[in-house]
Structures are given as structure tokens and as C-alpha cells.
Amino acid sequence: MLRFVLLILFAANLGYAAWGQGWLTAVGWGPGQTSEPWRLEKQMRPEAVQLLNGTASPTPVADAAPIAASATDATEPAPLETETPAPATAATEIATQCLEAGPFTQEETKTLRSALRAQELPWDSYELRTQEVAGRWMVYLGKFPSPELLARQRASLRAQGIDTDRAGGNLEPGLSLGRFSSEEAATRELTRLLRSGVRGARVVQERATTQVFTLRLPAVTAAQQAKLAALAPALGGKALEACAE
């Protein structure tokens, strides 16, 4: 059986070799023709083919000129571009100073606001800080009818070891026997003095609780300082000084 299969394979290979070599062309068996004559027979419109020599140019001279020019331009090196150095953009830091003045009462602050607007300072270049000032009470002795009587009373109190001070303001001529931040503290001191033999003293309110204002300029430049000099009349004798904090 194996021999029979081998014989069949051998015969098949032999037949394929004869077909491929064209040995069976005489009997009508063989591969298709691929030789040059066969290719020439298969050409379509061979008369349309034009054979050009090496010197002829199919492109008109007028059309070829731009091409030559562009080729020349392409080979020429491009001119070097000189870079202009960019101007420095880093801003120079401007030196500033923080200044403040005060305190000012409400009436003084109104005058100061008008002066600030007249100088046309930027609204965000200054601020008026509000601060509440607590009231103040005094143990007071007076008013005395004459400076001589006031001097005798001061000497008498010193002899008893009691310190005195000028009352000031519309309480003159008079003596202050102590100033306190609350009425209760002033009343306690008055009680102690009465027990010590002091007569005629009483508690008065020297200053009511009020609001005061401080002018603060956090970043004053050298150019702004010239404008601030014109604020002197509105500052009421209070000088602009370096900020405390």
C-alpha cells in the first residue's frame, strides 16, 4: 500500500515538472506565455508612446524660468536675523514708609477728611482708624475763689500726705485728687479721703466715653510726601510719625 502511494506522488511530481517546463505544450498543456513577444502583443495604443532624447525639454522655457529661480532661492542661505534684546520688564521696587498721626476728635477728623480729598490722594493710600476712648472720672476739689486760697489748700493736703494735680480745662482753678477709668473707682477714693478729713471734694466726670481717630498711611512714597506737607494745618499740630506697628 505504501509503495502504491509513493508511486502516485512520484508520478504527480513528474507530471507537474513536465507541465511547468512546457514539455506538454504540444498536447495543449502548459503555463501561459510570459515572454517579451507575448508582452508586446498585449500593448494598448503603442503608437501614442513618444521617445524623447536627453537634450529635449518637454517644458517651455518661459515656464522653466520661475522653477530655476525658485531653486536658486532655495539654495541661498537665509539672511541671519538679529534679535533685538527685550527691554527690561522687572519693575524697580519703590521705597515706601508707613506714617501715622493722631488721635483726632470727630470734629478734627471732619477737617482732616476735607484736606485729604483736596490733596487728591488715592482713596486706598490712607485710612482713618477708629478707637474708643473710655470715660475718665476725677476726685475734684474746687473751684477756688482765688489762686491764693488754692495754694493754701494744696499745701495743707501735702502736709497730710495727699498728692494733688491741676484739674485743667473748665475745672480751673481747682485741684485733682486722683483720676480713674471708672466712676466706682473714683467713688471709693473719695470715701477714703473723706475719712481722712478732706472736706469739699466730690467725683466729677472729666471726660465722657468717646471715639477718636488715627490717620494711617501704610505706604507713603517720596512723591506723596510733598502732598502730605500741605496737610499740616489740618493735623492740628500733630506730626506724622513712623507707624508704631
From TrEMBL:
Name listed for the protein in its UniProt record: SPOR domain-containing protein
Superkingdom: Bacteria
Pfam families (alphabetical): SPOR
Organism classification: Bacteria, Pseudomonadati, Pseudomonadota, Betaproteobacteria, Burkholderiales
Start and end residues of each SPOR domain: 131-206
